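Hello forum,

I keep getting stuck at the same step: I have a sequence, I want structure tokens, and every attempt I make locally crashes halfway through. Rather than fight my setup again tonight, could one of you with a working pipeline run this one for me? It's a single chain of 216 residues.
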Amino acid sequence: MIRLLIADDHIVMREGLSALIEEEENIEVVAQAANGEEAIELYNSVHPDIILMDLYMPVMDGLEAIRRIIANDSTAKILVLTSYSDETKIFSAIQAGALGYLLKATSADELLEAIHQVYQGNSYLPPAIARQVIHGIQKPAYPNEHYTPTLTRREYNILELLAKGLSNKEMAATLTISERTVSGHVANILTKLNLENRTQAALYAQKLGIKFEDVD
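Reply #2:
Ran it on my machine without issues. Output:
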């Protein structure tokens, strides 16, 4: 029996997933969480085999919950089920420790197949997501590793948040600045680093391991 924890802030989605999944004889939904904090608490108390994790939730988002769960239990099996198809979100979730990544538009059969694959310890990415991952990996994280660009402290802050997969709106809220200001900083970062898009910038930041405390 596969014991499953569903983490999603929409109760209709949780109940619908639970009803769908429990039609399978060998899968049991043992708990439901409405945010990342609840997901962590329930994981520690009921010890499910798999967490089906949404990314955008109040109180604590799915990415942060994944990081904290994996930090405490590197064997945790997490399958992301979200509406986000952005490359940065995909890379961030995988880097955080998720074994699989699905979009909510996926079919019931694919969802069940992903649950079984992740339960066996395998990674699971549908073809469209896999292509995005491969495309991102094949791009150089930075065109010239011997060149150190000059970024402002705020640009370093933005770069770190890009690496965490935050949207412009989320970065604006975190740094208490406007979305327009964030957009301007992102554009400046791409220009200075000679990169094409946010995903390449996020990969570059992840490669450097940039953190707030690293910036003077």
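Confidence is low (pLDDT under 50) at residues 141-147, 212-216. If your local run keeps crashing, start a new thread with the error log.
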